[in-house]
C-alpha cells in the first residue's frame, strides 16, 4: 500500500496534466496505461481480481480446508481487494472513461461492500476454524470469561456479573437499516462503557486486595470480549438478516466488475495495446 500511495504521489504532476501535455511529460512512457508502471499495475490488479474469486470457491469446496480457515481467507480476500483502487488508478492514469469508468466504479462499490461484509462476518460468533458457534457454545465461552475476570480482579463472581450487567446494551428492534445502525452503535457504546469498568472494579475491591494495573488491563480486555459476545448473541438474528441482504447487493456488483474487467482485457489484447507482445 505504501508503494502504491508513493507511485500515485510521485505521478501527481503527470496525472493532473491535460492529455496534450502528458504525451511530452518525462514520465509518460512509465505512467501511461500501456507504460511499464501503468500496465504493470494493470496486470497485478487483474491477477488480484482473479485471486479474489478463489474465496467463494474456498467457502463452497470443503476439500480445500487444508488451504486455511474461511476466516483467514476472508482477511486475505479483503486486504487484497483494498489494493485494487490504487492499482487501477495507476493503470488508468486517473482517467476513468467508458468501460474502465464503469469497472472502476463497480470495484469501488465492491471494496466498500466488502468492508461492510467483513464487519458483519465478525459480528457472528465463530470458532477459530470459522464455523459459527451455537448459542450454547457462546454461553459456555461467556461463563468461562466471567470466571477468568473474577479470578483476575479478585472479586466475587456475582459482583463481576452484576457490574457487566449494569453496562449491558439495550435491546432494539427494527428493519435491516435499523439493525445495521444498532450494530455500529452497539460497538461504539460498548467501547465507551467498558472503560468505566476499571473504576468500578477498583472501587468494589476489598481494601488491601485491589488488583494490579496489569490485572485490570487483562480483566478489561476479557470484559470487552464478554460484552461483545453478549451483543453478538442479542443481535444475532438481525445480523443474519443484514448479512443476507448484503449478499444480494454484493454479488451483482462483483459480477458487473468482473464483466467490465474481462471486456477491457479482451479489447486491450485485441488492439495490441500492450508491451507483453
Question: Could you list some keywords that capture this structure?
Answer:
0% strand; mainly alpha; elongated; 277 residues; 74% helix; 14 helices
What does this structure look like?
The two termini are 29 Å apart. By secondary structure, this protein is mostly helical. It folds into 2 domains: 136 residues, no CATH class; 100 residues, no CATH class. Helix 1 packs parallel to helix 8.
Question: Quick gist of this model?
Answer:
The chain folds into 2 domains: 2-19 and 29-123 and 249-271, no CATH class; 135-234, no CATH class. It is 74% helix and 0% strand. It is an all-alpha fold.
Q: How would you describe the shape?
A: elongated
Could you tell me the mean pLDDT?
Answer: 78
Distance between the termini: 29 Å
Number of domains: 2
DSSP strand count? 0
Order of helices and strands: HHHHHHHHHHHHHH
Query: How many DSSP H or I helices?
Result: 14
Q: Which structural class best describes the helix and strand composition?
A: mainly alpha
Give the biggest beta sheet: none
Q: Could you list the spans in which at least 5 consecutive residues all have pLDDT below 50?
A: none
Helix content: over 70%
Indicate the proportion of strand residues.
Answer: under 5%
Report the C-alpha radius of gyration, rounded. Answer: 25 Å
Amino acid at each position: 500500500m505504501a508503494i502504491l500511495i508513493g507511485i500515485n504521489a510521485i505521478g501527481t504532476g503527470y496525472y493532473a496534466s491535460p492529455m496534450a501535455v502528458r504525451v511530452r511529460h518525462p514520465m509518460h512512457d512509465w505512467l501511461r496505461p500501456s507504460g511499464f508502471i501503468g500496465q504493470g499495475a494493470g496486470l497485478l490488479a487483474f491477477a488480484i481480481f482473479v485471486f479474489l474469486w478463489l474465496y467463494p470457491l474456498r467457502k463452497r469446496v470443503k476439500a480445500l480446508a487444508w488451504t486455511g480457515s474461511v476466516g483467514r481467507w476472508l482477511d486475505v480476500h479483503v486486504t487484497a481487494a483494498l489494493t485494487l483502487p490504487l492499482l487501477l488508478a495507476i493503470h488508468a492514469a486517473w482517467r476513468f472513461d467508458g468501460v474502465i469508468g464503469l469497472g472502476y466504479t463497480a470495484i469501488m462499490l465492491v471494496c466498500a461492500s466488502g468492508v461492510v461484509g467483513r464487519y458483519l462476518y465478525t459480528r457472528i460468533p465463530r470458532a477459530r476454524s470459522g464455523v459459527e458457534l451455537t448459542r450454547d457454545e457462546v454461553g459456555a465461552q461467556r461463563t468461562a470469561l466471567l470466571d477468568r475476570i473474577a479470578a483476575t480482579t479478585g472479586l466475587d463472581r456475582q459482583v463481576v456479573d452484576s457490574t457487566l450487567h449494569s453496562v449491558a446494551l439495550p435491546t432494539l428492534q427494527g428493519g435491516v437499516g435499523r439493525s445495521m445502525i444498532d450494530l455500529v452503535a452497539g460497538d461504539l457504546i460498548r467501547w465507551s462503557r467498558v472503560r468505566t469498568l476499571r473504576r468500578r472494579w477498583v472501587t468494589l475491591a476489598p481494601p488491601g486486595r485491589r488488583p494490579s494495573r496489569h490485572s485490570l488491563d487483562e480483566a478489561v480486555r476479557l470484559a470487552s470480549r464478554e460484552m461483545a459476545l453478549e451483543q453478538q448473541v442479542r443481535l444475532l438474528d438481525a445480523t443474519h438478516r443484514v448479512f443476507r441482504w448484503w449478499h444480494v447487493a454484493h454479488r451483482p456488483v462483483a459480477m458487473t466488475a468482473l464483466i467490465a474487467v474481462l471486456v477491457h482485457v479482451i479489447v486491450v489484447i485485441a488492439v495490441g495495446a500492450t508491451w507483453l507482445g
